[in-house]
Design brief:
Blueprint (H helix, E strand, L loop, with lengths): L4 H22 L5 H25 L6 H26 L5 H23 L5 E7 L11 E5 L10 H12 L4 E4 L8 H15 L8 E3 L7 H8 L5 E2 L3 E7 L2 E7 L7 H12 L6 E5 L17 E4 L8 E2 L3 E2 L8 H4 L2 E5 L2 E5 L20 E7 L1
Parallel strand pairs: 1-14, 2-3, 3-4, 4-5, 7-8, 8-9, 9-13
Antiparallel strand pairs: 2-14, 6-7, 10-11, 12-13
Helix pairs in contact: 1-2, 1-3, 3-4
Organism: Conexibacter stalactiti
Protein name: Metallophosphoesterase
Keywords: Hydrolase, Membrane, Metal-binding, Transmembrane, Transmembrane helix
Amino acid sequence: MHAGPTAFALSTAIDALIACALVAWAVRRRPRLPALIAGVALALALVGVKLSLMVGAGLDRPFGVAHVLWLDAVVAVPVAALLLALLGWRGGGWLLRGLVVVGLLLAPVGAYASFVEPQRLVVERAQVPLTPARDGSDTVRVAVLADIQFDQLGEHEREAVARVMEQRPDVILLPGDYIDGSPAERTRELPKLRALFAQLRAPGGVFAVQGDQETPEQARAIFAGSGIRLLENELATTRVGDRRITIAGIEKHYVSPDARAAISALEARAGARDVRILLAHRPDPVLRLPPRTRIDLVVAGHTHGGQLQLPFLGPLRTASGVPREVAAGGLHTLDGRRIYVSRGVGVERGQAPKLRLGAPPEVSLLELG
């Protein structure tokens, strides 16, 4: 099944018609509230049947299913709530009117999450204290640009790179997921991405790793001739002021023998004076480090902060094994293992709903000292 915009629009229209038909039926019944409850139950059952048929025809799980449900929540439900207001507001009680208000409010929430927050790029800052055992006293400014993940490069991506450079970082880290599109889109956008990344410069260097959206060969092609060093299960050393920094970058398959060997080399390297950073696409490698790890900081992306975070619940889905509050983004410490997870710049593409709510896109500046 090719679930493009037309298929999702048709699905939403069908569900809106189902919801409106059941609202029209329910408001003519007495007592009205039990009829509405029955109508909602029947509508959910019909939507479930339709979703099962769509999945059988090739709708992606979980992203395509999430897209259908998202559009139902922010389009079909408000349309049904508007009809309920027109037909039943005057004779309805406080519960019915409350349902109407909540249903109508989903429409502006959907508009904000779809068209405003995905473009509301912010600069997140975090202070990362270093143990006195490390050489030097200078503060190291590390910028993180994660999950730029576009199919057509535009002003949003250019702004992200410009925001990074405005911070005047000493080191720049790129935790993967660069172009996310069809083979034709990748071929078309590759020269633009190279030109954009060529603007990234830092005295201590710019380092990148492979993400989920690119093969090793595609990652090498992205950074060829850019001056950015792609770390493929290897260590790099640099100096910023009076600080010595060792960075290990690993492939997306963080449990592969080569990735584990690179992490072990970073962990076991002799000496206590250099600052050690593990750069990975996914945050999960932090769970494989010993509680008293020699690695000062893990830097990762991948989760997008869940893209959708609800009050008191946090992200509904993280695609990671780290605790939910860690996957939501920011600086965290797990049994002495310190990790920074960036919410990233872009959104999940393909059949996924292109939204952010409670998890605005970010570029990050970490001050180590």
